Amino acid sequence: MKKLLGLGAVVAAVFAVASPAIARPLNWDGTMSTKLSGDLPTLVVSGGGVATVNNSTGPIPAHLATLRLAASRGLVTGTETVFITDPETAGNGIAAVIIDFEPRTGTFAPISGAVASQALLTDKTLPVGGLAKVCLLSTVCTDFLPLLLTQPTTNGARYSTMTATTPNQLTPGGLQGRKIGMPGTGVKGLGIGGLITVGGDSAIRISVEAAPWTVKTATAVDQTDDNTGAAAFHNVTRMGFAHGPASGTTSTAQPSGVLQIVTPSQIRTNLTLGTSKKLGAITELLIHFIPEPGLLLLLGSGVVGLAVLGRNRMKS
Predict the structure, then answer these.
(1) Structural domain includes residue 169
(2) How far is CA 183 from CA 104, 186, 194, in A?
(3) 161 CB contacts (<8 Å, ≥6 apart)?
(4) pTM for the whole structure
(5) 2 assigned to some structural domain
(6) What is the pLDDT of residues 80-115, one digit of tens each?
(7) Distances from the Cα of 252 to the Cαs of 38, 237, 244, 260, in angstroms?
(8) Are the C-beta atoms of residues 161 and 211 closer than 8 Å to each other?
(9) I want to staple 134 with a disulfide (CB 3.0 to 4.6 A). Which of 73, 103, 145, 256 is the partner?
(10) Residues 234-251: pLDDT tens digits?
C-alpha cells in the first residue's frame, strides 16, 4: 500500500509541475523563412527564447489567445546571402543580396480564436528589422544599396499603392488601397505594413510592399513572362496555423504546441530578379513551444521513479 501511495505521489508531483496552467512564460524554438518566387532560394534563419502567452498575470489555460515575443528574451536572427545568377539581372550590376534579420518585439491575438473562425488577428505586429544589402558589381559587397527592413514614416500610416482585395492579399492596383502601416508609431516595413524603398537616385530602384502578420492564408503575386512575352501573374500562398500536441487549437499554449504565422510582401524593381519582374515573397515564422530544461529533468526523474516503483511492486 505504501508503494502505491509513493507511486501516486510521484505521478502527482510530475504532472503538477508539468501543468501549463501554472506558468505564464513558455520556452520556444523556431525558424523564420522567406520564400521568394522565381528562381531565388528560400532564406532561413533560426533561434529561440521565452514567450509570454495570454498576456496574463495569473494562471493560464492551454488555449492560446495571446502571444508576446520580446527581442530581449530571444528571437530568430541571422544572415542569409542570395547570389544573383540571372544574366539580365547580373548584367545590370546586382551580384548578390545579403540580408541581416533582426526581429523585434511584437504581440499576436486572438490566435486560436482566429484559427477556428473567420476572425482576423487584431494584434498582429512583429517588426522584422535588419538590413538588406543589394550588392553591386561584386559578391564581396563593398558597394551596395542599403534597404532597411523597417523604416520610419512621418505620419505613422500610409495608403497602400496596392489594392487589397482581401485583408492579406496584395494585387496590382492604385491608390485606392487600404491604409497600412502602424498608426501612431511612425514605423513601416516587413511584419508591419507599408512601402519601403531603396535607390531611385541611381539606375536601380527596389521597393517592398509589406503587410502585417496573419495566422490564416497569405497571398502575394508573382509576375513572369509567358511564352509570348506577355506578363503573366501567379498567386503565391502560404498558410498559418496553430495546434497543440493533440493537433487541437485548444491546447496550443503548452509544451509541444506549434504556431505558424505568415506575412506577404510584394517586391518591385526596375530590373528583373531571377525570372520575375515582380516578386511575390512570403515570410513564415514557425514557433514550437518546448519544456524548460528543469522540467525535462523532473519529468525524466519521475519516469525513472515510476519504473523503480513498478519494478519493486512486481518483486513484492
Answers:
(1) yes
(2) 17, 7, 11
(3) 173, 174, 175, 177, 195, 209
(4) 0.74
(5) no
(6) 998 888 776 777 788 888 999 988 899 998 888 778
(7) 34, 24, 4, 11
(8) no
(9) 145
(10) 888 899 998 888 777 778
